[in-house]
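Quick check before the chapter quiz. The format below is the same one you will see on the exam, so make sure you can read both the input and the output lines.
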Amino acid sequence: MILNFFKEIGISCCTHFILGLPSQDKREVFSTLKFLASKPSFVGASVFYPVYNSKIFSKISLKYQRKGKFKFYRSSSFFYDKELSRDELASFLYFSRIINFIKSLCMRYNIKYQNFRDFLDEVKYIFRIRPPQIKLNLLIVDSSLEKDLIGAIILCKIFEYKKIYWVEKLKKENSVYYKFNEDFPSPSLTSEFIRTIDNLNIEAPSF
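Here is the expected output.
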């Protein structure tokens, strides 16, 4: 109820959860993402790290208690990777950012989210995205494109090909090149993420 109250008075919120806790598995993370996606709040995924001399620190294996490794605990190296692999942890961070981007588009363009397919149709209409833009991995344009448009094209490609992409921007003479490169999350994990949000009612924070 508190999140709905903040939305009503125009305050945007971000709800954090810990990613990579001991005994945490993929099903639990997907369940958490699904729950937070449906709330009027951005999703904040914070990477778990073992706090020295805490109760949970004493329970993890010696591999993660070695001296000299403490500096890595709070880094993005995903030092604790027992239950979930580093690639899986990084993928879930990606997925939380995708959910937040969807929420931000809903806020900025006043999109009423019903399901992912209808959302993409609305996005394609707003940004005038044509099928060739989704199929091609290289876009050549006369001038730089808006970040929201690039992100919208990536969303369409994610749904179409069940892959995650990152964009490389290159300038050559009088043209701008956008190269869409496939990133590391596995197609199976990405497909599971798509299934998770496909018929989910994603709710944006305050408009």
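If your answer matched, good. Residues 86-109 form the longest helix (24 residues).
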